[in-house]
């Protein structure tokens, strides 16, 4: 498997876990089971802790776990990533779900790739590649069709849902761009683990005073899924993909998140897909094949 295909694999699997956790979170919020702030704090703390423990057990040296703090510039980048990337990407997305719903929050979150492509074009003083422009258009249009079935009036949002949704798009862009060189120097588990643990700290006072929900098997299972698959592995895979493919490509492939949410709704909630939704799902899947074209062409040239 080529590096580009490894990156695509990690990005897609991470997006699938994200989509599943978003659907679960919406169910918990709509039933009044949990507060978004409580869930964000808990998932960041325990997911970060599990990643650092995992890293420690596999490396065997405690000093390795703190190596990222031994260089001032790396420590500063980690702190920026934690509070300008990790924390807001979690918080804004869950608040957008709480005040709206998972599909519309995902649509607004897809402003992120647009911000990334614009930023990279300005920073590199060059036009985006044509294939990236086509892919982003397919991803955005496909997501829109998938979650709205082509009807603008189905995206009726409260002001808070709109505000937090746009914030999710901006924070998604910063989350993708900020870790940069940290991923080339350190294990992704170390970077993501510390970023999540730091990001959870502002929520500690809220968690301490928030009434603990009555945990049963169903609620505990959903929380554990969100922590392990929807947070720890989803973010780890997403950041790992950045080691192999461009940030804009990773963001575009995260369009599998709404696709996953829709499929799960169809299976568990008997939601019937309309024709335009099926077309939208096909457009999202097409971004995968478009991103495979450059790798294939390079291989043929060799």
TrEMBL record:
Belongs to the EamA transporter family. This is Carboxylate/amino acid/amine transporter. One of its GO terms (cellular component) is membrane. InterPro entries: AA-Vitamin_Transporters, EamA_dom, EmrE-like. It comes from Bombilactobacillus mellifer. Residues 7-147, 161-290 form the EamA domain. Keywords: Membrane, Transmembrane, Transmembrane helix. Its main location: membrane.
């Amino acid at each position: 498997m080529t590096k580009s295909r490894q990156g695509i694999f990690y990005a897609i699997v991470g997006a699938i876990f994200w989509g599943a956790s978003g659907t679960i979170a919406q169910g918990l919020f709509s039933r009044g089971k949990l507060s978004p702030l409580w869930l964000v704090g808990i998932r960041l703390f325990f997911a970060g802790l599990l990643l650092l423990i995992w890293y420690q057990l596999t490396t065997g040296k405690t000093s390795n776990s703190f190596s990222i703090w031994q260089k001032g510039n790396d420590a500063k980048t980690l702190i920026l990533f934690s509070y300008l990337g990790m924390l807001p990407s979690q918080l804004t997305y869950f608040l957008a779900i709480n005040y709206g719903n998972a599909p519309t929050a995902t649509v607004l979150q897809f402003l992120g790739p647009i911000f990334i492509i614009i930023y990279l074009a300005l920073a590199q003083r060059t036009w985006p590649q044509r294939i990236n422009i086509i892919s982003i258009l397919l991803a955005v249009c496909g997501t829109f069709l998938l979650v709205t079935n082509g009807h603008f009036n189905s995206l009726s949002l409260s002001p808070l849902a709109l505000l937090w949704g746009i914030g999710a798009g901006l924070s998604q862009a910063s989350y993708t761009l900020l870790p940069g060189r940290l991923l080339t120097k350190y294990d992704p588990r170390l970077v993501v683990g510390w970023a999540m643990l730091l990001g959870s700290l502002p929520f500690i006072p809220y968690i301490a005073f928030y009434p603990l929900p009555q945990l049963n098997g169903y609620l505990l299972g959903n929380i554990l899924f969100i922590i392990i698959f929807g947070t720890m592995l989803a973010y780890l895979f997403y950041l790992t993909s950045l080691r192999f493919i461009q940030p804009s490509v990773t963001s575009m492939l995260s369009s599998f998140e709404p696709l996953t949410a829709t499929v799960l709704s169809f299976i568990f909630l008997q939601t019937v897909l309309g024709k335009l939704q099926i077309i939208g799902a096909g457009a999202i899947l097409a971004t995968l094949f478009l991103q495979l074209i450059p790798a294939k062409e390079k291989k043929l040239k060799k």
